[in-house]
Design brief:
Strand order of the largest sheet: 3-9-6-7
Distance between the termini: 110 Å
Number of helices: 14
Oligomer: single chain
Order of helices and strands: HHHHHHHHHHHHHHEEEEEEEEEEE
Number of domains: 3
Structural class: alpha+beta
């Protein structure tokens, strides 16, 4: 008799969870409010229901299930997505939720994409960029996906402003995306990112900037390429010359298309004030060369400091010229309208080798 009663009790104990699970499933499918009181998270059916995209649960019940699921496993994708979708319209809650995501290391690509799309569709572009950063930090395969979104919203200035602000982060993720997908950004946005990073003291690295500048030049966008080269070399200063300064050692090793090319017979000397160019004894050499992309107009060309020795220069719109004009005095250069790319050449007279030195050159538009 006792064994029979024990059998009945065990059977009832096993049947109750099954009854709650299937009964609760039925209530949920009919969107009955009583479903909120069924303890799904404590039954075997709960995880399957939460992960199912075919079963639509009442909002409050979904929220309760998701919170309980996250207590068990902070990395449950469907639970986090359910909460994030509900809380997107509540900034304080959404911020807390993202903080929890960061603490648990939760950066699932699919979910971050869904959250990005939801935020962008609501024009919460600041929130969307948080999710863009989260996926780009962890997933290189997210780069082309994010680029598609940038192109889709390219006409939306608020979206672009949010993207520019997020890309000002000096982290590897931002430079990785810029290096691989820079063409997704409009030229103005690229210049804004370069300028903001320079102004903040965190300029784009040459490893990232030079391929971007070279790519733009090859694609025919000479104006933007030259603008980015100036920002790379001189930062965002309004007093910078319209042509590059004598290059640093790093710039000589990784020059952009608009940097001075220093051949074997010349060297750039660095001191506390500025760099200077000098010719090395015993080395006949090609002239120092520069390609520029100036707007049509009249320019003043001069040294920005002392010029020891005898120096000459050449200017052409066609190809590299021979240095034949004196550079020790200020010169006037006229760029015609049919001259999108210009070529400069500079050389020192052999007579003054060992006693020469040329300060950086300046080119300024004449008012």
């Amino acid at each position: 008799m006792i064994a029979r009663w024990l059998g009945w009790l065990v059977g009832i104990a096993l049947a109750v969870p099954v009854f709650l699970a299937w009964g609760g499933t039925g209530l949920a499918l009919t969107r009955n409010s009583l479903a909120m009181d069924v303890p799904f998270a404590n039954t075997l059916i709960a995880p399957r229901m939460l992960e199912s995209e075919r079963i639509v649960l009442p909002e409050l019940q979904t929220r309760r299930m998701a919170l309980e699921a996250l207590e068990v496993s902070p990395l449950q994708q469907r639970a986090m997505l359910a909460l994030a979708q509900q809380d997107m319209t509540e900034p304080a809650t959404a911020t807390a939720l993202r903080a929890r995501m960061a603490q648990t290391g939760w950066h699932d690509l699919r979910v971050q994409q869904q959250l990005f799309l939801k935020a962008a569709s609501a024009e919460r572009f600041d929130v969307a960029m948080v999710h863009a950063e989260a996926m780009l930090r962890r997933h290189d395969e997210a780069r082309p996906w994010f680029s598609q979104q940038v192109r889709q919203y390219a006409a939306n200035q608020r979206f672009l402003a949010a993207a520019e602000q997020r890309l000002n982060d000096p982290g590897k993720w931002s430079e990785g995306w810029l290096r691989a997908e820079y063409s997704a950004l409009p030229a103005r946005s690229l210049a804004e990112v370069f300028a903001a990073r320079s102004a903040a003291g965190n300029p784009i690295s040459r490893d990232t900037a030079v391929p971007i500048i070279a790519g733009l030049a090859e694609q025919g966008d000479i104006k933007t390429a030259a603008q980015l080269a100036r920002l790379l070399n001189d930062g965002a200063s309004d007093t910078r010359s319209l042509i590059a300064p004598w290059p640093s050692r790093e710039a000589q090793q990784r020059p952009s298309p608009f940097d001075w090319r220093i051949p074997a017979g010349y060297a750039v000397l660095e001191n506390a004030e500025a760099r200077s160019l000098t010719r090395i004894p015993g080395n006949a050499s090609r002239p120092v060369e520069l390609t520029a992309a100036l707007a049509p107009g009249t320019y003043d060309f001069r040294t920005d400091g002392a010029a020891m020795g005898v120096w000459s220069y050449g200017f052409s719109c066609v190809s590299l010229p021979q240095p034949s004009k004196p550079l020790n005095t200020a010169q006037t250069i006229v760029v015609p309208s049919n001259c999108p790319r210009q070529f400069f050449a500079v050389a020192a007279s052999p007579a003054a080798i060992g006693q020469d030195g040329l300060a950086p050159l300046r080119l300024d538009a004449r008012d």
